[in-house]
Amino acid sequence: MEKSVLGIFAHPDDAEILCAGTLSLLRKAGWSVHIATVAMGDKGTATHTRDDIIRIRNAEAIKAATEIGATYHCLDIDDVYVLYNRESINKATALVRKVRPGIVFTMSPTDYMLDHEISSQIAQTACFAAGIKNMEVDEEVYEYIPSLYYCDPIEGTDRFGNLILPSVYVDISDEIEMKAKMLACHESQQSWLKSHHDSEYIQAMRRFSEQRGKDINKAYAEGFRQHLGHGYPHDNILKEILGDLVVTM
Q: Could you tell me whether strands 103-106 and 168-171 are parallel, antiparallel, or unpaired per DSSP bridges?
């Protein structure tokens, strides 16, 4: 295992909304950080052409990642057409093998849209498949299965509005301004999300981070659930690295 962290998310800005504070803390703890999106963000506009919004959002994602010295990757799948298929699994598996992470973060398995949920499934399989010899992937086999953490769903609820509670909280009180700075890099999305589904974006992120913070009597926090299925690590590596900043339930 290397001291490398990989986040596999659906769209540019998902990482910043869901776990940028934790990624910043891990970077400060000496871990290299990689932020990847399955999709290019090509549907996140009401005004730009497809080619223009892809270029804009790629630049925004790189800028946001650079704020904490992270590297951005994209698997180049179209928004809305994120599918659990050979192409997406092979691309994600190749990335896991290339980065060789000890920790992987991804989307919640249940969320308000399928791009998020399927990206979560793709990440889960990629973590396991990275060590399988006969995959259709050129990168060298990575024998270690990384610790896998699911971020909160957007607004902390499933598709039926039921609350999804974390089992692991990370106190990001000292990182909230960096989290907001990273999210602000995604300028193209602020007006788009307001017009499309009335999201205030940065304010909404702050409110939810504050809500998670109240759960553990801190100012701001991010919530996660660890994948504890057969073959995956069961030790809470976040607690080992970040110490008292991590609270388990």
A: unpaired
How many C-alpha atoms does 233 have within 13 Å on its Cβ side? Answer: 17
94: domain CATH number? 3.40.50.10320
End-to-end CA distance of the chain: give it in Å, rounded. Answer: 26
Residue partners of 148: CB distance under 8 A and separation at least 6: 104, 106, 123, 124, 127, 226, 227, 232
Lowest mean pLDDT among 41-45, 69-73, 142-146: 41-45
Contact 117, 111 (CB under 8 A): yes
Helix axes 114-129, 86-99, angle to 10 degrees: 60
User: Quick one: residue 76, left, alpha or beta (phi over 0 = left, psi -120 to 50 = alpha)?
Assistant: left
Look up the domain containing 97 and give its range. Answer: 4-248
Q: At what angle do helices 202-215 and 176-184 cross, to 10 degrees?
A: 160
Count of the separate structural domains present in the chain: 1
Task: List pLDDT tens digits, range 187-240.
Answer: 888 776 665 554 577 899 999 999 999 999 999 999 999 999 999 999 999 999
204 versus 46: the higher-pLDDT residue is: 204
Can you give the pTM of this predicted structure? 0.95
Please give the structure tokens belonging to residue 196: 């499309």
